[in-house]
Amino acid sequence: MLHYSVVFLVVALIAAVFGFGGIAAGAVEIAKILFFIFAIMAIVSFVAGLMRQKN
Fold first, then answer.
1. For 12-54, how does the pLDDT look when each residue is reduced to its tens digit (9 = 90+)?
2. What pTM was computed for the model?
3. Domain residue spans of the chain
4. What does the CA dihedral 47, 37, 3, 30 come to, rounded to 10 degrees?
5. Are 52 and 19 in contact (CB under 8 A)?
6. Is 20 left (phi over 0), alpha (psi -120 to 50) or beta?
7. CB 34 within 8 Å of CB 4
8. Would the pLDDT of 11 be above 70?
9. What is the DSSP string of 1-55?
10. What is the pLDDT of residue 29?
11. Between the N and C ends of the chain, which has fewer C-beta atoms within 10 Å?
């Protein structure tokens, strides 16, 4: 999922360079959403791994 957020970020940067404002804004929003979902899932699995090691 982190891969997809990086891809959308690159698409947004390329679109911004060429002046496609709407496409760039949409790609940035998708990249942000995917990054936060990835971060939450990474934190949850890290905590679950710590809990599993304690038991």
1. 788 778 777 777 788 888 888 888 888 888 889 889 888 888 8
2. 0.63
3. 2-54
4. -170
5. no
6. beta
7. yes
8. yes
9. -HHHHHHHHHHHHHHHHHT-HHHHHHHHHHHHHHHHHHHHHHHHHHHHHHHHHH-
10. 85
11. C
